[in-house]
Structures are given as C-alpha cells and as structure tokens.
Amino acid sequence: MSTTLDSDERRVLESIPHQLLIGGNWQDGEHGTFAVEDPATGDTLTEVADASPADAVAALDAATTAAPEWAAFPPRERGEILRRAFETIVARVDDLALLMTLEMGKPVAESRSEVLYAAEFLRWFSEEAVRIEGRYSVSPTGSGRILTTRQPVGPCLLITPWNFPLAMGTRKAGPALAAGCTVIIKPAQQTPLSTLAFAAILEECGLPKGVVNVVTSTRAGATTEPLLDDQRLRKLSFTGSTEVGRLLMSQASKTLLRLSMELGGNAPFLVFEDADLDAAVEGAVLAKMRNGGEACTAANRFHVHESVAAEFAARLAKRLGAMRVGRGTDPGVDLGPMIDAKQRDKVAELVSDAIDRGAKPLTGGSPLERPGYFFEPTVLGDVSDHARLLTEEIFGPVAPVISFSSEEQAVTAANSTEYGLVAYMFTANLKRALRVAEALETGMIGLNQGIVSNAAAPFGGVKQSGFGREGGHEGIAEYLATKYIAVNMD
User: Fold this and answer.
1) Whether residue 143 is found in the same domain as residue 180
2) Coil, helix or strand at residue 341
3) Against a cut of 0.90, is the pTM above it?
4) Same domain for 441 and 472?
C-alpha cells in the first residue's frame, strides 16, 4: 500500500535516483526493486533497486578501476569537490530534511539539524585533504634519512545505519574521499534515499565516475560477502550493532581488511548532588530524546544521586510527558515514529520486563495504538538492578532512573557494561569531573552537556563499542597507510 503524499513530498521523492550507482552509471539491480516504508504509517513511500552480489562485485570493479586516478588527484581538487558538496547540501537542506523524515521518521526540524551536521563533515574533510603529511628525519646513526609518506588505503566498503542516514554517509565518505580512496556505500535497507541523494550531489559536484558507488539491497550479508572475500577491497567501515560487527570482523579476517567499527552503546548519564538540575534535565532530554532515542549515543541509564533522584525523575517525566508524538512532517511534533515494528516491539518488551521487576512508569510506558511504529516517551523510576534495559541497548524513547549514594558507586555502575561508547556527567565540581572522566571506560564524555557529536572531534568508543575514530584530525588517518622510505647517505 502506498502512503498519501503531498506535492512537496512527491517532488522530493521523485527528484532523486532510485537505482544503483555503479561506475558512474545509474542502473537497475539484478533483483528488481524493494519498497521503502514510511514508518509513520507502515505504507510504501517508493521503491529502489535491489542489488545482487554480482552488482556489488561490479561496484568493486568500478571502485578498483577508478582508484589510481583518484589517488593521484591533486588534494586541493579533491577538497574543492567536497566543499562544493557541502555548499550544495546546505543550499538544499529543506528538501533533504523532508526526504530524511519520510524514510526515517524523525521530525523535520531534527532532520534539518542532521542535514547541516552531515554537511559539516564534508566541509571539515575538504580542509583536511590538503593536510596529509609525512616526515623527514635523520636516522639515529646519522648515516641515513627516514622518509615517510601517507597514501590512500584503496577501495573502501562503507556500511551505514538507518538512524542517521545522511550524517553516517558523509562521516565515512568525507574522509575516505579526502584521503584519495574510492568507495562503495551500502546504506541500510530501511533508509536508502538519503544516501542516493548524497551520491547524486557528489556526481553533480564533479566527482569522477566510479569514485563513489552505491549499492542498495535487501540482502546485506549476501551482497557484501563477496566484497569481504576480495583482496581488492582494502578497508571496511561499519556502523551498527556489536553482533553484526563481530560477524563482519570474522569475515574480514580472511583478507586482513583494515577496519573501523562503530558499534553498540549503553551510555550512562550521571547526575551528582551538586549538579545544576535545570541543566541536567535539559541535557537529559537531549541525550535521551535526540533521534527519538534511536542513537548509539543515546543515554541508556540515568544514575542520579539519591538526594536529587526523585526530583530529577519528576522533572524529566514532566518534560517527556509534554512531548507531542506524531508524523515527523506534522507541525509541532517533538517525537516521530520508531523505524519499524521490530524496533518498537523490542522497546515494549524491555519496558514490560522492567515493570515486571518493579519499575514504576512516571510517564508513558506503552506503544501507541495508531498506524505506524510509535512508542510513548517514557520515564521509569524504581528500576531494579536486574532489569534488562540496564544491560541492553534500548534504542528508543525510554529513560530508566536509578539512584546512587557515592561517587565510587556511580563510577562502578557506569562501567558495569561491555560497551564503552559515551557517557554523560553533570556536576559543578571540576576536580570530581576530571576524576570521574578519567575513571569512566568510554571513548567520549559529555561534561555538563547532552550532545558530544562534532565533525571536528574524534567520534568512537572502546570495549565492545568498537574501535577507530570518525571526525576530527583522527578521522582521515583511518583511510591512510604509512609508507617508510629508507635513504642511505653514505
């Protein structure tokens, strides 16, 4: 069933390619097409090409053929293409935001923020393209010279998730292209449209044919498996679940692929007794409800000092309970649908488990009985230590609040997870802030703020949250190999 669309929605859907991009040509997939669903209604928005493993290999053929020329491109010219893409995305922010809302569900205002955030990676890495440096030094014996240079690693496979369908594409493709690598982008089945729009913009901005290839498919494993087995592929960057990340790592071991893995999270949000509660609640709303909680950086557990836990929970429940839920294109909507029925049902199961173990809903707690995949903004108090949502990633609009009595207890609770992507902390004590920040086992920390993402900063985690960094000066290094040249001066 097709969803009912207004004229602007039809226009943006019709304005983008719905085919595969292979070697600079838009073409149909071997397996026909698949439907892209509107998560606000469950109806079909449009259909895009469904790639086969053979299509994926053809994309690698194209990326391999284009690789030498792109690696030899002047860095300034690579950067200028990315800069033009940045400017084009900013100029088309409203259309791209509407497109994103249609396929992913988040409110248009939030989609607009993501589009601008996504563009920043292109601006940042357009500037990094000309700053790829080596070194020259005298050997310790004085009889020789040490030269190093950094070169693109080669063709890369970029697997992006559905929750940030444009930003995850630019965060990976930006540094890869700046470094001189060719790429194959495999977007999530649920949200291919933003990636197709991005590829079309790169093409429009002068990117040579074959440098970026896009493979949309309903069979992610079957489509990518021949690429991971192929010695010509030299790099894999993946954002997604830890479970899938482990599988991809195992497959990649056969060819010793270079890897970047941004995997699951279980972010603790710590509120100490001296925190500014107004700021802490505001930070909690951002950390929990950005992207409807469907983010690896979303606060998953709220550890609050016992002296302020009840007040914090009540204030947070008031804020979340006042949120307007609806289709992301409707005016005034604060929370859109979840991506699909599977994700909504998982959240419902976790909340039900917590309530069965004694948790008290302070607001929300249930799926909404309406078309689409909606779940109420939810705050849970009196959460048992044994509730599954304290150890599993919720990926939805649910905030469990747990109290602690000491700094040591808070740090222990925060670190009691296999994940280590991000943590948030609110305190007015600088010494405590630094002490706790050093003790937390995470790759990123939001200190008195609920958002950490920044194109100029290194994004990534530790433990089962993966390895490698995206963004910042570190981001481009993931796509460069160091070559050492020994020179004998005797």
Assistant:
1) yes
2) helix
3) yes
4) no
